[in-house]
Predict the structure.
Amino acid sequence: MNSKLIRTIFLALAFGFLALWVLEFRRAGLFESYWLLLLCVICFLLFQFSRLKAASLAKQAAETGAASKKPGKASAVGGQPSAVSGQPSSVSGQPSAASPARSKPGKNPKK
């Protein structure tokens, strides 16, 4: 079952037992209605346990998801992925060495 559905059921049962306990307490007293109060407390504790368990599972899933998530291919310069797959990215706006439109060695490209 869905954990949200279970938490909703526990919370509804707890409030229902609490309402029944109040009505029974007014009618018969604490001794005869104590069991309803205990059921109410048990349902509240189960609700809390379910909520904390779901939160810890979500936290673990987020930690394992972040740890298992590997960064994409990044170039050595700036840690940014290259524009073309398999080719290093350009440095400071200049075309990369693998780029077909490169300038001759020793000359600066025209701007």
Helices lie at 3-28, 30-68.
